[in-house]
Every structure is written in C-alpha cells, then in structure tokens.
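This protein record is not my work; I was only asked to verify it. Take the sequence as given and treat only the tokens as open to question. I have pasted the whole thing underneath without changing anything:
***
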Amino acid sequence: MCHVSAVSSCSGTRPMGCSKWRAAFNFGHLKAQSKRSLFFTMIVLFTYLLYCLNECCDSHPRPVYENGPVSSRDGPEGAQPLDAHSASSASLLRKQLSDSPNGIQPFYNISIANNFGSKTLPQAIIIGVKKGGTRALLEFLRVHPDVRAVGAEPHFFDRFYDKGLEWYRNLMPRTLEGQITMEKTPSYFITKEAPRRVHSMSRHTKLIVVVRDPVTRAISDYTQTLSKSPGLPSFQSLAFCNTTTGLIDTSWSAIRIGIYAKHLENWLRYFPLSRFLFVSGERLVTDPAGEMGRVQDFLGLKRVVTDKHFYFNQTKGFPCLKKPEGSSRPRCLGKSKGRAHPLISNEVLLRLRDFYRPFNLKFYQMTGHDFGWS
C-alpha cells in the first residue's frame, strides 16, 4: 500500500493515493517558502521604516547655535538658532567638530541643548544684600516669562567655588533662546573673593544689589537670628563694643553688611558702575511696580511685571503677587518675612544713624543715587 512504502510505490506505478499525497507535500513546501519570503519582506520594510524615521528626526529643527565668541551662555551671546533648511542639528554638530583644530570643540562653544532649552551660566546675579529684599525681588522677577532663576541660593562664588563652573551650570534651570538665567546669593556682596570670581566667569554679568536703610537692615538681620536662637544677647550688647563710649562693633556681621560703600569699592575694582543696578528695598515695598520697571529695563526685558500683578498685604506689611490664573491663592512671601522687630531704644538708633551717615553719603556719591536714609 502507498502509506507503507511511499518511495517504492511512487517510483514505479503511481496509484491515485500517492498522487494526492505528493501534491499535498508540494503544496506544504510552497507554503513554507511563502512564509519565509513574507518574513524577509517584513524585515526589509521594517528596516526601511526605521531609516526613514531617523532621517525625519535628524532634519527636525533644534536649538543648536552657530559658533560665536565665548560667553557665559552655552549658546553664545547673539547666536541665532538655525532654521530647518540650513542644516540638521546632527550635521551642524559634525561640521563644528570637523572644523576645530583637533576635531573637538571646547564645551563652552557648543550649546548643551535639547528640545526643552539649555543650561547656561547666569547672565544676571542678585549679589546682595541680606535682609534687603532680595527674595521679594527674585519672586517678582520669576513672574516674567523671559526670566528663569534658581530657587535656592547656590553660594557658588563664596562657598562652593572649588566645585567648578560645570557644577554651577548644572544647578541652573533650562532656558530657551531669549530667556535670561539668574540666581541670587546675598552674601556675594560682602565676600572679598566674589568680584574676581564672577568677573572670571564673565565680565558682562549684570549685577543687582538690593539695599535698605542699614540701621533697619541690621535690626531685621538680628530679628531673623533671634528667631532661630532665642537665647541670643540683646541687640544693643552685640552692636556696641562698649555701651558707655558708644563704640560700634563693626566685626558683628549685622553691622558690617550695612557699610555698603566699603563692599562696593571691592566690586568696582572688577566691574564698571554700568554693570550694576541698585534697587531700593524701601521702594520695593511701597512701589513694587515702579522698582520692577527699572529692573526689567536694566535686564533688557519687556515691561511685563506691572502694578496689575501686585496688591499690598496689610497683615504682613509687604506687597504680594495677585492670584495667578489656575491658582486658588495669591503668592506672598513666607512666614519668615515681615516679622515684628524688637523694640530698640531711640538712643541706640541715633548712635547707629550717626555711625552709618558718612558711609551712606559716600555710597550715594558712588552710585549717583540718594536713597534718603536719615
């Protein structure tokens, strides 16, 4: 029978059963070949699809910048984003690498960029002063869509300078073309090494100093410390070396910070006066919109933050930002702001004002601005 000896039976006479079996075998063989061909075709199509997608992504415009002069930004000052028709980001990067002498470009000439912007060194820094209103200024500035700022104080130029500029850069938020990167660390103003270090980063850095009546500032400074250390000696005992003679203790930081003219002299050794903006801490409270107008002009920003953004909080004694869209409450400074100051005798206040007066007058002369501190 055919199913017992398929080979012998089919090699000779070909019964009907064998023909059917052989036809079935040939059909199965063709079916297997068809599956292999289909599988191979799918691989080819899938490879081609990946290739097409890769070319599409490569030609998508990204914020890569042309080479230009080195600056504090990853994308150099004045660099323009290339459009999609000029070159792809990948091909531009390859060209930059091939054009360099050793095939490698310095890190600061190529923007560390992606679709969400790039991390750059700050173009503007709020360098002082402590208890002058720096936190309020930063929070008001962050309302502006073209300002991106670090929330916490980096303290790079006074405490962590040995970590290097790349560490500092990585602390910064990502910015898009046309936005400004900022940070604030009030202790920079009184740090001897800070001016040289900032200048070494970029001599074009814009410097903002928020100043306040040095007597009121010293009391505010003491109040903050007292809230953290309730056992602190009295303000009077810390402010005077000898209460009988009335000799002021300038080694106490609360007093020393308010000698603005002395600290400014150190900064003017490295930066011209045109790189500074001196913000009145008092006006920042009484007329925040007016003072913010000056700040935005100094930074080269459109005046977006105006009086419509503020209202005065009678309880705290400070201006607050009005409720932003989508928020259930207005934005005010934290509980630590607007603390009640301890009562200081008039005699102590008069002695402090007499002490600061010559320094204040010199500061007015240096800045060309009379802040009106009595």
Q: What stands out?
A: The longest strand covers residues 206-211. The first helix runs from residue 6 to 11.
